[in-house]
């Protein structure tokens, strides 16, 4: 422990994955840390519902980068496996089209090669070239893992490389430079949607490692991803951290240009040397700092930015089990570029859809009673700013439509098998977690809102107020918010020890 940290303390507002990871890092460094969460459980978007022996898990289901998690336990000589069990996911991701054709993005390199030879033999060399291009970009562009956002100087120095690498091109455009198959282009660019980006507009080089999943095993968490949040909370408390649940922070106290403490909705108050917020970025400025000019200004400026899409999720439990349906599928509809335009630019609810289908019980049967299964069909939709419809009316219709589509494509007698079903729409996320416009990914990762141009992990005016999570550097998604927590922890510890 750094001697200058003795007697110092910090507060982290919000126990999403970004907040949990930051709290662990601070506490592990010897800084007495209090984590305050509005809800009764930690985990943020990784929520869980239980009914009649079924566990319905929300949030990210695929862990592509377990090393970033292991690091949080290894900091203090502990082992992730003490709290969380990782299960390998077979097949990686299956992409399927309405005519029944499919492409499996295997984690295993040899299997992937065989699949490429079957699906798009002409693109094998192009795929290798694409991977080389992205690996090269990773080395050329600023912004290392767990490091803060690149500053203006390093951005300027990187400009020639960005021009050479054609950083202005979208993910789909970049993939299309190397890949000729229309369907493979869709498969290799659609994943940016789960970072909140429009494949037709998000810069391919803002986060090159994340966009096209490198080969390697993917994992899920036994018992659901919310078990990961519970495990992180346990690790934090084991290190001596304090968690306060079910009491939202109402206000960050400010004196001059320093944060001095927080007040919660229940009236609880405490002083802190350093404060970080993992809450939605607009809420953090507009509400928690709304009594300051900085908070009001920044809240207004951030609210004007384009935000990522919302997600409409249908959770359903079925009688029977389906060993042939992989854990993760993407069911493409008849349109791709036009559908993205509807979601990101026009803001309509189209007749067709793109579905991310999760089937967790194929890997972890314990999530349902014997012989039964759970599924989650997730459809990206325009956020509440672009599509201000009455979701109470539309929700049940869309729920039916998604179940019909899964039935048509995969389970013909689905309607006779449904035991439970419910949906979760963008207004639910806005209400439950305070997310701006119900976006599951916060600020949209367009070129001018990515990389060093994303909000930073330290406020520019209030020097001991920090930010972590989807709205900040480096972006949304589990692995990004974990890396953002590493960056924020470094800045907070530096600020307290310099
Ligand atoms: C259905 C779904 C599927 C997804 N799938 C994927 C995927 O496949 N891959 C992927 O990488 N990502 C996925 N994501 C996105 C990923 O889950 C998020 O980017 C990530 O979890 C966001 O973490 P975060 O740290 O920003 O915090 P959040 O999860 O947004 O949590 C913020 C926390 O702050 C709390 N809070 C808010 N206001 C206050 C306050 N005033 N006081 C105290 N606490 C407060 C909230 O209650 C919440 O717990 C998915 C998201 C959803 C909804």
From the alpha-carbon coordinates, what is the Rg to the nearest angstrom?
Answer: 22 Å
CATH-defined superfamily of the domain at 3-49 and 223-305 and 444-497:
FAD/NAD(P)-binding domain
The biggest beta sheet reads:
7 strands, mixed
Helix content: 25-40%
- Dominant shape: globular
Q: Determine the CATH topology of the domain at 3-49 and 223-305 and 444-497.
A: FAD/NAD(P)-binding domain
Structural class: alpha/beta
Pfam families: Amino_oxidase (PF01593)
Organism: Croceibacterium xixiisoli
Protein name: Phytoene desaturase
GO molecular function, one term: oxidoreductase activity
Give an overview in words.
Helices cover about 35% and strands about 20% of the residues. The chain is an alpha/beta fold and about 500 residues long. The protein has 16 helices and 19 strands. Among the domains are: about 5-50 and about 225-305 and about 445-495, FAD/NAD(P)-binding domain (3-Layer(bba) Sandwich), CATH 3.50.50; about 115-210, no CATH class. It has helices at about 15-30, 65-75, 110-120, 125-140, 150-165, 170-180, 180-190, 210, 225-240, 280-290, 295-305, 335-345, 390-410, 415, 425-435, 480-495; strands spanning about 10-15, 30-35, 50, 55, 85-90, 95, 100-105, 220, 240-245, 250-255, 260-265, 270, 275, 310-320, 330, 355-360, 370-380, 420-425, 465. Flavin-adenine dinucleotide binds near residues 19, 37, 44, 248 and 433.
